[in-house]
Amino acid sequence: MKTRFWKSLLATTLLLTGIGIAQAADPIKIGSFLIVTGPASFLGDPELKTLQMVVEDLNAKGGVNGRKLELIHYDTGGNAKDAVSFVKRLIKKDNVDLLIGGTSSGDTLAVIPDVEKEGIPFISLAAAVEITEPTKKWVFKVAPTDRMAVARVLEDLRKRSLTKVALITGDGGFDKSGREQVLKLAPQHGITLVADESYGNKDTDMTAQLTKIRGTNAQAIFNFGFGQAPAIVTKNIKQLGITLPLYHSHGVASRTFIELAGEAAEGARLPAAALVVAEQLPDSDPHKPVLLAYKKQYEAKHGPVSTFGGHGYDSLMIARAALERAGGPDKAKVRDEIEKTQGFIGTAGIFNLSAQDHMGLGSDAFKLVEIRNGAWKIIE
Prior knowledge:
Blueprint: H1 2-25, E1 28-34, H2 41-60, E2 69-75, H3 80-92, E3 98-101, H4 105-118, E4 122-124, E5 139-141, H5 146-159, E6 164-169, H6 173-185, E7 192-198, H7 207-214, E8 220-224, H8 229-239, E9 246-248, H9 255-261, E10 269-272, H10 287-302, H11 307-326, H12 331-339, E11 344-345, E12 350-351, E13 367-372, E14 375-378
Parallel strand pairs: 1-2, 1-3, 3-4, 4-5, 6-7, 6-8, 8-9
Antiparallel strand pairs: 10-13, 11-12, 13-14
Helix pairs in contact: 2-11, 3-4, 5-6, 8-9, 11-12
């Protein structure tokens, strides 16, 4: 009888131990939804490649607290409705522990209600200021805001005494949010908007809007958009013989934009993360070694780096540190630890988050760059 008891106890102990080991070995699931196909694929593609690269690297080093990471990804193609469906699937079916994604502001803003309702930590890669203002409990972001980008452009316009500006924007969430910031901030910088034109992000010709702009007394053109459309705007400006200074948003801070726009992009200015000009930074800049390390790793696998891939790196490294401090993927604890992020040097800048600031970047996150000889050059 005693022998049977001890055998039963031993079997139960082994079973429970096995369950414990299995649970300890369960991967931490990271859910992502990005735009890797369609007109904005050159934004989401480097984001996904970066997430995959960093997950592989972290797993090779033992994962997080001894647990491997598993990346579960869906391609939204830039469709906000699909983004919502995928996020619901990631939360309810895939049972992910944390969300990273939202290549575009439109995709990000669309999923926030579900994220807040389900209570899952979410780090967005998009720019719209509305993503984190006002602050939402479960939502964070790593991309500098459109407000910061607009302010950088307006400051440079004012410096060059270019006070009459023609604005042209796309019809996506990112574009519309940027337009709102331009309308709000232009008067504060002494800038008068002499035109306010728009286009569809899938349009293939914007000469009608640009012809109207040519008929104004504009001293410069500011195109706020992302995807392939800004490259078309840029080429159309060249085709129409318009020689006004051209500014773009940070939404085109990608090598692909230069390739799409070709020679027409020469001289265009835009705010961009320091990643695209990492080699031009002084050695005293604390970002430089971080930027060069990421750039070297990414380009060894995938070719030219982009600031959008950098957002993927920043988000996952912030998440990893939060998971480590939380001791595991408890959603509430991870959320709290993300919010406590201080002094993290990422590709977009130095992150200092708080309960009042779920982005944590300062105004120095952007460098003003100009396209010269098919490459980025720091203006200041």
